[in-house]
Amino acid sequence: MPAKGYRAEKRADGWMIVNADGYPGISSAIQVTEWEAEVIADGMDRAFAAGQRRRSEEITALLKG
Which domain, by its residues, includes 35? Predict the structure, then answer.
């Protein structure tokens, strides 16, 4: 199985979703649980693989409800 494109990474200011190279996939760290961060990273990975990549602002807006 290929490596995941996105993953959740714990930082001092919250969780950051990063790509395989460690670059941020969203504009800023988010305040969520570890499980939620993993779900978000998985969703971003699936969307990217399906050719439906969303802008980080849209993803952040979805997270905030």
Answer: 6-64
Tell me the whole-structure pTM to 2 decimals. 0.68
When divided into structural domains, the chain yields a total of 1
Q: Is 42 part of a structural domain of the chain?
A: yes
Three-state SS at 25: coil
Helix, strand or coil, per DSSP, at residue 14: strand
- The phi, psi pair for 27, rounded to 5°, reads -75, -25
Does residue 1 lie within any of the structural domains? no
- pLDDT digits over 3-60, tens only? 568 999 999 999 999 988 888 888 889 999 999 999 988 888 887 777 665 566 666 6
